[in-house]
Design brief:
Chain C: Belongs to the ABC transporter superfamily. The complex is a heterotrimer of chains A (65), B (256) and C (292). In chain A, 78% of the residues lie in helices and 0% in strands. Chain A is mainly α and 65 residues long. Chain A has one domain. In chain A, helix 1 packs antiparallel against helix 2 and helix 2 packs antiparallel against helix 3. Chain A is elongated, with a radius of gyration of 15 Å. Chain B has 256 residues and is mainly alpha-helical. In chain B, 78% of the residues lie in helices and 0% in strands. The radius of gyration of chain B is 21 Å and the shape is elongated. The two termini of chain C are 35 Å apart. Classes of the chains: A mainly alpha (65), B mainly alpha (256), C alpha/beta (292). Chains B and C meet through helix 1 and helix 5 of B and strand 6, helix 2 and helix 4 of C.
Chain lengths: 65, 256, 292
């Protein structure tokens, strides 16, 4: 199995980095945001962390207009 | 021309500052990486599952075709849906927030609004799609290095279908002006109607839906380029007509 | 030359007539106050002038050019400040005005100077924050700046002061008065003191038409009557003898009688007023008169 992980790194590293940018940006925006249209700060933090890709996208679409 | 470039710049600034441009690019690149990755690990996963359940079977190694199959599945479903959700409100949110009133009362031509927003959507879609397709292509080339038939045409079909969806979004936006939900629902309704009509094989061959149903068939050599000529021409024609209707309709849209 | 001319304007929403045969003419460098209750059709009229809504009947001319719905050609003469102006809140004031300047075709070389000049006028010079952090008053002032970017001949303001505190209102009125050197201003409101403070002419919109118009620089609104301040008991005695219109505390407003008649009546009944004065009508009196 260790061999496999090595072999998959060319995929896993970019995937991890891209998701990191998405989640980190969303989290920074959530922490800076004062008023929320839907839900509250804590709920968004949880959504963004738990639902990868979809969570940040939902946040950008619903809260950032 | 100055109006158009100013408005286009505004769209770029807007989508950059609310991070949507970046978000869609990231999602498209993720699709680009994820597709060959899924194709690569699928036999391993299948093998493990089968071993656990005690089934003995020979699982063939994945091929370049599997990588592209994953790409088209992801892009035609997830990619397009996320694109429409993230960028489909480009006109309706200006209505629901009344931000266009200031500009239109300054002599901003309504035609320019539709043209610039359409061009911007096409620009984002094309950029994201090309990057995503290139990423999948490079990985596939590196890991498999096998030839497939009509790769460019196959990629182009999904791109064309994207343009068709964009024209649908623009036209629906001019009809419902301030309701993004109504725009989403009408796009979904049209797609479902096309899927239902596709049950008849005779009809299916002429619908835009045919383009995203036969990417892989084309790559595998089961479908010939001339088979997709008519759906391509029809999709292109309908797309142009929808853009034109959006422009005409928007000229007479009341603004409150 | 008239800056704005409206002839026989009609507009109905779902069978309900809002504007019925409206006629209006406004000349250059005037401040025209457009007053009427909420829902009287002020905003609807303005939106038809701007080509945002279609008129059912009648013609509108801006600088002698006909306004066509959906066609924004005449809007190059017009600046518009909506009641609640909305901006791209992720921009700052300079970025937004730059966009407006490009849209209206202000020469690139002249843009910086014009934007500085306007920010100075509305007191937003050096304001670097994004518009999303602006107060209502700041948004209203930026609204005036964006409306004036292309030096329009006509500035239309929809209830520019209604949502503001007294200080914010004063600032807006001062700016409006100042810009009449360059442009004609039409503004709608239901705050009559604002109108009296800065307008040259006033039209009262009621039942879909201008029912009364005044030149505030020349006309007075006429006499309201004679106000007489008396003891409380005097009312019963005078009631059958004089036409008493209205009473405010112990002050009675008496109309349709000459001063002599009133003096004589009071004298005959040995009633001695503590105050007796001729009263002029205020704009509010006229407004209440024509809209009731």
């Amino acid at each position: 199995m260790n061999m496999d992980i090595q072999e998959y790194l060319p995929f896993l590293i970019p995937l991890f980095l891209l998701q990191l940018v998405l989640v980190a940006t969303a989290l920074v925006m959530i922490i800076r945001q004062q008023d929320f249209r839907y839900l509250n700060r804590m709920a968004w933090v949880i959504i963004v962390i738990i639902l990868n890709i979809v969570g940040p996208i939902l946040y950008f679409v619903l809260e950032r207009r | 021309m100055i109006q158009m470039s100013a408005l286009f710049r505004k769209e770029v600034v807007e989508s950059w500052r609310n991070f949507r441009l970046m978000a869609i690019l990231i999602v498209f690149i993720i699709i680009g990486v994820l597709s060959p990755f899924t194709a690569l690990i699928l036999p391993d996963i299948l093998g493990m599952v089968m071993k656990d359940s005690g089934i003995m079977a020979e699982i063939p190694d994945s091929a370049a075709l599997d990588s592209y199959t994953q790409f088209f599945t992801n892009m035609n479903q997830m990619g397009l849906v996320i694109f429409v959700i993230v960028f489909g409100s480009i006109l309706t949110h200006e209505f629901s927030r009344n931000t266009l009133v200031n500009l239109v009362t300054k002599g901003l031509k309504r035609t320019n609004v539709i043209v610039v927003k359409s061009v911007f959507l096409i620009f984002v879609w094309t950029m994201g799609y090309v990057v995503s397709a290139l990423v999948t292509y490079i990985y596939t080339l590196y890991y498999w290095d096998e030839a497939v038939d009509h790769l460019i045409l196959s990629f182009t079909m999904t791109w064309m279908y994207g343009l068709f969806i964009i024209s649908l979004v623009m036209f629906a936006s001019t009809l419902f002006t301030n309701s993004f939900i109504a725009v989403l629902l009408s796009v979904v309704a049209i797609v479902i109607m096309m899927m239902m009509a596709s049950i008849h094989p005779d009809v299916a061959e002429y619908l835009p839906q045919y383009l995203i149903g036969n990417n892989v068939g084309l790559l595998a050599g089961e479908v010939e380029p001339r088979d997709v000529l008519w759906p391509s021409v029809i999709t292109g024609g309908v797309t142009l007509v929808l853009f034109l209707l959006a422009v005409l309709r928007f000229r007479k849209a009341p603004m409150n | 030359m008239s800056i704005l001319r409206i002839e026989g304007l009609k507009k109905a929403f779902n069978e309900k007539t809002v504007i019925e045969n409206l006629e209006l003419e406004v000349g250059s460098h005037e401040i025209y106050g457009f007053i009427g209750s909420n829902g009287a059709g002020k905003t609807t009229t303005m939106k038809m002038v701007l080509g945002l809504l279609a008129a059912d009947e009648g013609d509108i001319y801006v600088c002698d050019e006909k306004v066509r719905f959906g066609d924004t050609l005449t809007n190059r003469h017009v600046g518009y400040l909506p009641d609640v102006p909305e901006f791209y809140t992720y921009m700052n004031a300079v970025e937004y005005l730059k966009l407006c300047a490009d849209i209206t075709g202000v020469e690139k070389s002249a843009q910086k100077e014009r934007i500085d000049e306007l920010l100075e006028l509305v007191g937003l010079k050096g304001e670097k924050t994004k518009i999303k952090n602006y107060s209502r008053g700041m948004k209203q002032r930026l609204g005036i700046a964006q409306a004036l970017i292309h030096r329009p001949k006509l500035l239309i303001c929809d209830e520019p002061t209604s949502a503001l505190d007294p200080k914010g209102r004063m600032e807006i009125l001062k700016i409006l008065k100042e810009i009449t050197k360059e442009t004609t201003v039409i503004f709608s409101t239901h705050i009559l003191t604002d109108v009296e403070r800065i307008c040259d002419r006033v039209g009262i919109l009621y039942d879909g038409a201008i029912v009364k118009a005044f030149d505030l620089n020349q006309e007075s609104f006429g006499e309201k009557g004679i106000a007489v301040e008396l003891d409380a008991g005097a009312y019963e005695t005078l009631k059958p003898l004089l036409d008493i219109r209205r009473m405010v505390g112990t002050t009675y407003i008496i109309a349709d009688h000459s001063m002599k008649e009133i003096y004589d009546t009071l004298h005959a009944h040995k009633i001695y007023p503590s105050k007796i004065v001729k009263e002029q009508k205020s704009l509010e009196d006229v407004y209440l008169e024509v809209t009731s």
